[in-house]
Amino acid sequence: MRFVGPRPALFNQDDLVALRTECGVHELVPGLTGWAQINGRDEIAIEDKVAFEKDYNVRKSLWFDLKIIVFTFFKVLKTKNVSH
CB within 8 A of 29, min separation 6: which ones? Predict the structure, then answer.
């Protein structure tokens, strides 16, 4: 597991796993935070989440990971768009 990457799917999220496999996102190492998490957390649809993860797969770099880490810090402080 990495610090930045797509969040691991739950055991009952077969639709998420199928979409990730279809888009090639399943090959990414899971992480604690990711591009999809800072762009909507629990509020975005599964299709949008996979689209953000696919975008991350294309754009991944050290600088992009650092940007995600900084944005994560501010999103956690706001606690906006959290459904739980």
Answer: 1, 2, 5
Q: How confident is residue 40, by pLDDT bands cut at 50, 70 and 90?
A: confident
Nearest of 19, 21, 26 to residue 47 by alpha carbon? 19
Residue 12's SS3 state is: coil
Other Cβ atoms closer than 10 A to 58: 7
8 Å CB contact between 50 and 28: no
Mean pLDDT of 46-57: 94
Longest Cα–Cα distance of the chain, Å, equals: 34
Q: Where are the domains of the chain?
A: 2-78
- Distance from C-alpha of 77 to C-alpha of 39, rounded to nearest angstrom: 15
pTM, 2 dp? 0.84
